[in-house]
């Protein structure tokens, strides 16, 4: 059986008209791809709103299973509504929560990883011609508590299901026409890639290309699932393929970081669990390191003595960039570079967040 997993993001499901459109896209695709599983995000803005309420009422608590319960609720609305819209068109459909599937995860609240995915319930639907519409972003612990896979994690749900069902492809429908040389909402003349390798995409996503969740790429690479990023508004456009072999790419991305300091080297010399340290250095002033903003609680819980700056922005040039583009990144006119990070295929600089827009546009004009 040729199975396709189709994931629709929050902007594609933001209101009733958008949901009607997505139902039409699925119905029309059924002529070519009759066996599909659909994964949905919450309506655009919903999860931010839920996060705001959690912060207002329990912000100081840090990661917490009840926060996951609240955050996961937005996807139940869209899964149910899209299933209703499909049924109204005569397409048999059924909404599923993550825990009903089940997608079983660890207990890394707020950013869990799947450890097991059931496929049999969805396979029964597919065998009887029903389109399963699955809540993205949600999981469940072996003990039965609701979990979430990290912000943007519906992409990961889609690839996890594609792997469990041995699907031929995982299609990610979103509000842009693929993966671009820079965020097209900042850079109108950014170009969409035809294809990107798993490794290059993982670096782009890890350093800020929000269009695909980094964990989704890891799942896709480990299971050999081709990922096709497509526009919901223009589903017939060619989009971008993410697969093993692809052309070399170069892009500019951005992501908020925290700059940390400790007076001395921590006792525990190995990396902290669940924290990606982007750069580190030791000087007379102490031990200095950079992490993503999302890692704040993970750092504080393991190294309570560490202190950090206000969030800054890491602007990164990824891939085989030219000398000209690298010079443009290192010497932006009138912008102070606070720190520079160099790794194979990555050159990144830390700046004040207010400079993000100018930095991206400046560097992109020098991208070949
Ligand atoms: P969805 O709601 O469909 O999951 P997201 O907001 O998570 O969509 O991701 C799509 C957004 O990612 C685009 O609207 C775009 O602004 C942003 N983006 C950032 N970097 C890139 C990039 N390099 N290529 C494409 N989109 C990007
Ligand atoms: N709704 C979740 C979020 O906003 C998951 C997703 O959109 O992929 O992060
Ligand atoms: Mg997303």
List keywords for this structure.
alpha/beta, 368 residues, 11 helices, eight-stranded mixed beta sheet, 2 domains, VC0802-like, binds magnesium ion, binds adenosine-5'-diphosphate, binds aspartic acid, 19 strands, globular, Carbamate kinase
Short description:
This protein is an alpha/beta fold and 368 residues long. It has helices at 16-29, 46-58, 65-71, 74-88, 120-127, 154-164, 198-206, 214-223, 296-302, 323-330, 356-365, and strands at residues 4-8, 36-40, 93-96, 103-105, 114-117, 131-135, 138-140, 146-148, 169-174, 195-197, 227-231, 240-243, 250-262, 277-283, 286-292, 307-308, 312-319, 339-343, 346-351. Aspartic acid binds at residues 10, 41-42, 47, 74, 136-137, 151-154.
Topology at a glance:
Layout: E1 4-8, H1 16-29, E2 36-40, H2 46-58, H3 65-71, H4 74-88, E3 93-96, E4 103-105, E5 114-117, H5 120-127, E6 131-135, E7 138-140, E8 146-148, H6 154-164, E9 169-174, E10 195-197, H7 198-206, H8 214-223, E11 227-231, E12 240-243, E13 250-262, E14 277-283, E15 286-292, H9 296-302, E16 307-308, E17 312-319, H10 323-330, E18 339-343, E19 346-351, H11 356-365
Parallel strand pairs: 1-2, 1-9, 2-6, 3-6, 9-11, 10-12
Antiparallel strand pairs: 4-5, 7-8, 11-12, 13-15, 13-16, 13-17, 14-15, 17-19, 18-19
Helix pairs in contact: 1-4, 6-8, 7-8, 10-11
Bound molecules: adenosine-5'-diphosphate (ADP), aspartic acid (ASP) and magnesium ion.
Residues 9, 152, 155 line the site of magnesium ion.
């Amino acid at each position: 059986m040729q199975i396709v997993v189709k994931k629709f993001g929050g902007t594609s499901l933001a209101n009733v008209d958008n949901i009607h459109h997505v139902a039409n896209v699925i119905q029309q695709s059924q002529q070519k791809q009759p066996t599909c599983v659909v994964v949905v995000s919450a309506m655009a803005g919903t999860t931010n709103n839920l996060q705001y309420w959690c912060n207002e009422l329990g912000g100081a608590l840090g990661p917490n299973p009840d926060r996951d319960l609240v955050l996961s609720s937005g996807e139940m609305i869209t899964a149910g509504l899209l299933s209703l819209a499909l049924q109204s068109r005569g397409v048999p459909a059924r909404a599923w929560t993550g825990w009903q599937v089940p997608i079983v995860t660890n207990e890394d609240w707020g950013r869990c990883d799947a450890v097991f995915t059931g496929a049999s319930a969805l396979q029964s639907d597919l065998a009887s011609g029903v389109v399963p519409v699955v809540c993205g972003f949600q999981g469940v612990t072996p003990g039965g508590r609701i979990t979430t896979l990290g912000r943007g994690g519906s992409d990961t749900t889609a690839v996890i299901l594609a792997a469990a069902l041995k699907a031929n492809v995982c299609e990610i429908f979103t509000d842009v026409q693929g993966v671009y040389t820079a965020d097209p909402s900042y850079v109108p003349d950014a170009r969409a890639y035809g294809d990107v390798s798993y490794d290059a995409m993982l670096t782009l996503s890890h350093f800020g290309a929000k269009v695909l969740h980094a964990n989704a790429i890891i799942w896709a690479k480990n299971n050999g699932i081709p990922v096709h990023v497509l526009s919901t508004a223009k589903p017939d456009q060619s989009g971008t393929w993410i697969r093993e072999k692809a052309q070399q790419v170069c892009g500019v991305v951005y992501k908020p970081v925290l700059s940390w300091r400790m007076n001395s080297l921590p006792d525990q010399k190995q990396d902290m669990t669940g924290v990606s340290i982007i750069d580190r250095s030791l000087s007379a002033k102490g031990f200095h390191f950079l992490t993503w903003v999302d890692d704040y609680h993970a750092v504080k819980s393991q190294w309570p003595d560490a202190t950090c700056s206000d969030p800054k922005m890491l602007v990164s040039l990824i891939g085989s960039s030219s000398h000209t583009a690298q010079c443009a990144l290192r010497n932006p006119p009138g912008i102070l570079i606070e720190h520079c990070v160099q790794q194979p295929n990555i050159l990144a600089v830390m700046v004040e967040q207010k400079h993000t827009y100018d930095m991206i546009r400046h560097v992109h004009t020098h991208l070949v």
